[in-house]
């Protein structure tokens, strides 16, 4: 099952792990494994990547970063295959991502002996890039009757799906808002009317997908393996300069 109908699909450069993720989900379809179990597995993969970076085993770190991206896609695939949508799982996925991203960049800052403040700025830039991509992607799914577990605006507590407890959804939502609310508000301030306009063309969504977490982790893994760890923060910060350009192009193209 896809997040988008066929006519709205685009080449997602951050979603290279989707074919393997679907195989994993199919293998787990008739088992007792839940999407949250898969989410926990991607957390383990992310932590193993971080440990590998600490010990400067960058090929192993790159492997686990890619594996983390695959498993990050597999939890959603399993939820769709089992027809068990969950706001608890959706928020848990995002919360785990942002915590792992922060630890990852702080560790890279340490091993590359670069400025801690530069690492913090790189983390903020990484999150802003991902927020813009996810914002446009959620709008595309909503306007094309695709998957809507991820909402365009997370500004109210969602009603729990059957099978999950409302108090769990409420807690996870509040934690999500604490961690992501500032990034969401920043992006919305720069492009507040996008949800009322026609969808972005596929070529623009493909370009935007370089800001998806899967591509970002792939880029970080490549830089580590290539011996360019000192440039990780600088490149992530530099890519953020593209955000206002993309928003301007989108407005000129669609308005």
Walkthrough of the structure:
Helix 2 (35-54) packs antiparallel against helix 3 and helix 4 (87-111) crosses helix 6. It contains ten helices and no strands. The chain has helices spanning 18-28, 35-54, 58-81, 87-111, 116-143, 166-190, 202-208, 213-225, 232-239, 242-254. The two termini are 32 Å apart. The chain is globular and about 45 Å long.
Report the biggest beta sheet as strand number plus sense, adding barrel if it closes.
none
Helix fraction by DSSP (H/I, runs of at least 4): 55-70%
Q: In terms of per-residue confidence, which ranges show pLDDT below 50 for 5 or more consecutive residues?
A: none
* CATH class bucket: Mainly Alpha
CATH architecture classification name: Up-down Bundle
How many DSSP helices? Answer: 10
């Amino acid at each position: 099952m896809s997040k988008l109908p066929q006519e709205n699909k685009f080449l997602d450069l951050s979603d290279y792990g989707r074919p393997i993720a679907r195989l994993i989900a199919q293998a787990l379809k008739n088992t007792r494994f839940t999407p949250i179990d898969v989410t926990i597995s991607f957390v383990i993969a992310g932590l193993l990547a971080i440990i590998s970076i600490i010990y400067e085993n960058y090929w192993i770190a790159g492997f686990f970063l890619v594996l983390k991206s695959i498993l990050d896609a597999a939890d959603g695939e399993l939820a769709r295959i089992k027809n068990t949508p969950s706001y608890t799982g959706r928020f848990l996925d995002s919360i785990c991502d942002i915590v792992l991203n922060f630890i990852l960049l702080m560790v890279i800052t340490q091993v590359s002996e670069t400025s801690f403040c530069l690492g913090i700025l790189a983390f903020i830039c990484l999150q802003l890039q991902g927020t813009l991509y996810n914002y446009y992607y959620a709008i595309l799914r909503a306007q094309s009757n695709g998957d809507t577990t991820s909402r365009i605006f997370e500004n109210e507590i969602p009603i729990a799906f059957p099978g999950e407890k409302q108090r769990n959804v409420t807690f996870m939502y509040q934690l999500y808002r604490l961690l992501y609310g500032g990034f969401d508000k920043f992006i919305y301030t720069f492009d507040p009317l996008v949800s009322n306009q026609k969808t972005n063309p596929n070529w623009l969504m493909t370009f935007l997908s370089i800001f998806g977490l899967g591509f970002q982790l792939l880029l970080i893994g490549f830089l580590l393996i290539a011996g360019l760890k000192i440039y990780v923060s600088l490149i992530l910060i530099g890519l953020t300069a593209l955000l206002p350009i993309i928003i301007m192009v989108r407005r000129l193209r669609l308005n």
